[in-house]
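step=encode ok
step=design start
structure_in=
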């Protein structure tokens, strides 16, 4: 019987981060997995089914909201600094390792989309991580930005980002934008139909607003987690990639996988960026579960 509990821990600057802890029914210490959500999302955006699948396989699982989002504290709200999120994830690992249910020597991480990129950085720079799953990960913020903004629109877009910085230097709050919107008159990070459907799903009353700071986009454009992929080995890496991903870009992900050293595995699933959460959840979750079973001790082998 898997149980879910509300938990919290402190970041180094005193910000309280909150999340869910999933525990399997068996007594004793268990290998554990720490999970994070994607850009401007909260844990209710499709992470619980993955967490429950891992817990049912015998893992303790921690899912936390990034600072400034969801149940976690932090200001300004709806603001994303990828490096602050990675630093907080390191603290989440420490919190998880100290839990009495957890074997501190058997820690894995799972990240998807923006946090899939975080997972690449964390796996390359924190050897407490013994196994990593990176699902539809951000690889190159600069290349994603180049492809999303038409060349003729780029000067005005860059000036808007610069104007936001000038206003903040003068004491103004950061400008805001929608996370996802089909309205051409509304500034938004995403406009595709699948993005809008994903972000607007019923979250059961979770604390989420369709808003993110404009400077979060500026930070994303200079976030390059793909440069770390060659440093992950000998930590085992599983990358789950969607065949038609126009958000984090299939070709960038496949190229990053090629630059990773063994042990590694690539699982290609059909569909767009959000298909692992929906129509291909079964394939994505099973692949991740088996990877963790293979490379973290203390749970039954997938071959047994």
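sequence_out=
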């Amino acid at each position: 019987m898997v149980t879910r509990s509300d938990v919290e821990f402190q970041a180094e600057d005193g910000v309280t981060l909150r999340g869910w802890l999933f525990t399997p029914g068996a007594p004793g210490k268990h290998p554990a997995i720490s999970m994070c959500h994607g850009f401007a999302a909260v844990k209710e955006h499709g992470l619980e089914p993955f967490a429950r699948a891992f817990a049912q396989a015998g893992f303790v699982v921690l899912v936390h909201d990034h600072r400034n989002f969801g149940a976690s504290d932090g200001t300004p709200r709806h603001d994303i600094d990828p490096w602050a999120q990675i630093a907080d994830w390191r603290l989440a690992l420490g919190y998880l390792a100290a839990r009495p249910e957890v074997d501190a020597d058997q820690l894995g991480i799972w990240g998807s989309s923006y946090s899939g990129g975080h997972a690449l950085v964390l796996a390359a720079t924190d050897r407490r991580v013994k196994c990593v799953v990176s699902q539809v990960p951000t690889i190159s913020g600069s290349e994603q930005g180049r492809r999303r903004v038409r060349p003729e629109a780029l000067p005005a877009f860059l000036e808007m980002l610069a104007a936001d910085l000038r206003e903040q230097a003068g004491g103004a709050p950061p400008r805001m934008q929608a996370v996802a919107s089909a309205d051409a008159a509304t500034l938004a990070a995403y406009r595709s139909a699948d993005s809008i459907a994903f972000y607007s799903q019923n979250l059961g009353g979770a604390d989420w607003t369709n808003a993110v700071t404009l400077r979060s986009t500026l930070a994303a454009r200079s976030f390059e987690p793909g440069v770390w992929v060659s440093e992950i080995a000998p930590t085992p890496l599983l990358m789950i990639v969607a065949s038609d991903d126009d958000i984090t870009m299939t070709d960038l992900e496949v190229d990053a996988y090629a630059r990773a050293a063994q042990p590694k595995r690539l699982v290609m699933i059909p569909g767009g960026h959000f298909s692992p959460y929906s129509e291909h959840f079964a394939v994505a979750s099973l692949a991740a579960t088996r990877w963790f079973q293979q490379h973290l001790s203390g749970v039954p082998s997938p071959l047994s």
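step=design ok
step=annotate ok -> The first strand starts at residue 3 and ends at 10.
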